[in-house]
Amino acid sequence: MSKETLNVIGKVDISIRKFIEDPNGNITLENGKKGRYENWEKQKIKNLITTNGAYFLLTQMYQKTGIAVNGANYIALSTDSTTPDISDILLIDEIEDSGLERTQGSIGIVSTTKEANISNIFTLTNNVNNISKIGLFNQATSGILVHEALLDIALNLELGDQIRIWWIISFS
Hints:
The structure is a single chain. The protein has 172 residues and is mainly β. The protein has one domain. Helices cover 7% and strands 47% of the residues. It contains one helix and 13 strands. The protein has a five-stranded antiparallel beta sheet, with no helix packed on it. The chain has a five-stranded antiparallel beta sheet with strand order 6-12-11-7-8. Strands 2-4-3 form a three-stranded antiparallel beta sheet, with no helix packed on it. A hairpin with a 7-residue loop joins strand 11 and strand 12.
């Protein structure tokens, strides 16, 4: 008798582009500064699915009742630099201001590759140091932390900089 397995693999592409002050630039920030953006710099990281996240996914797929209205598509960022653990239920030191508030990402499902893509571009409204971790939740506030990832290099970003989070979840 053969045994089938289902692997859920998550990876995250993080891209950053800095805002450069330039009086001839074509971008104007809320504070009136003019400038332009540098090219995107990328970081690729792997994530883990928390224990509660795995239970949430199973419930969404197989339960008749208790199904959530939203999937895990709210992106959150944190200054916590501890290694993610499957028992985590919160994103410690979640950033709740400066343009980095938890946000529902754009969602794309690709049936041919069995992938879900969740993405968002955040634009900083203030300086933020030590952005170290990201998570995917099923709600705009509180909710279940389903996926969690630690950045390879913590980010120190300034007003006007942008960070693009593109979470790719694949089933195989």
